[in-house]
């Protein structure tokens, strides 16, 4: 990897950013030179990624952060996918509190990050170990991720980007009849997708509130 290594950290928790930087500085004692850029929400993360003057080698994204709805960026997952498009050679590491298998499977399938870490697994030594793996062109998944992907309960469940948009806007209080304003689908197509989502998430009846609750329980939104 070229020197200096350009690193982007996007997280809305200052203490997490400091932990990253401390680990990077510690690793820097091995002779590597790092330049760290930090951002604390989806908006500032987005602006750094699309900045034509910047080229990142490694990027850390927290999954849950203040959104940037104007650009359709609602989470660290969206930033990671944008980074994959803008800088496909950049190694992406995602951190999350989510421990739902469906959520983890979706992240791996849609983003295929170089690193995926459950925050409860995170220690300073673990971060150093993960960083060493990434620097040496290996992937790193924390122990909880490894245990989850070994399960099979939701392996065949798939929700695409439109399904997730439907759930997201419903969770924000948008009525089904108004969803075509936010999503480029007809009302009938949206209603069919809602029925399919209910089947996938095993919510046979109930209200949209019940659907959103189960989607959150399973880590879809």
From TrEMBL:
<dbReference type="InterPro" id="IPR011006">
    <property type="entry name" value="CheY-like_superfamily"/>
</dbReference>
<feature type="domain" description="Response regulatory">
    <location>
        <begin position="6"/>
        <end position="135"/>
    </location>
</feature>
<dbReference type="Pfam" id="PF00072">
    <property type="entry name" value="Response_reg"/>
</dbReference>
<dbReference type="InterPro" id="IPR001789">
    <property type="entry name" value="Sig_transdc_resp-reg_receiver"/>
</dbReference>
<protein>
    <submittedName>
        <fullName>Response regulator</fullName>
    </submittedName>
</protein>
<keyword id="KW-0597">Phosphoprotein</keyword>
<feature type="modified residue" description="4-aspartylphosphate">
    <location>
        <position position="62"/>
    </location>
</feature>
């Amino acid at each position: 990897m070229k020197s200096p290594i350009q690193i982007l950290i996007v997280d809305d928790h200052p203490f997490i950013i400091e932990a990253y930087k401390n680990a990077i500085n510690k690793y820097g004692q091995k002779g590597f030179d790092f330049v760290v850029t930090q951002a604390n929400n989806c908006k500032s993360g987005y602006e750094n990624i699309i900045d034509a003057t910047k080229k990142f080698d490694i990027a850390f994204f927290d999954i849950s952060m203040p959104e940037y709805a104007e650009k359709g960026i609602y989470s660290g997952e969206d930033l990671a996918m944008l980074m994959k498009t803008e800088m496909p050679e950049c190694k992406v590491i995602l951190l999350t509190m989510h421990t739902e298998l469906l959520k983890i499977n979706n992240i791996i399938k849609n983003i295929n990050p170089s690193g995926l870490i459950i925050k409860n697994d995170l220690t300073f030594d673990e971060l150093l170990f993960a960083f060493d793996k990434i620097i040496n062109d290996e992937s790193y998944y924390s122990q909880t991720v490894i245990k989850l992907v070994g399960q099979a309960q939701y392996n065949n469940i798939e929700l695409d980007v439109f399904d997730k948009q439907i759930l997201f806007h419903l969770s924000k209080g948008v009525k089904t009849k108004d969803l075509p304003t936010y999503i480029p689908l007809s009302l009938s197509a949206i209603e069919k997708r809602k029925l399919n989502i209910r089947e996938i998430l095993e919510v046979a009846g109930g209200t949209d509130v019940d659907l959103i609750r189960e989607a959150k329980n399973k880590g879809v939104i």
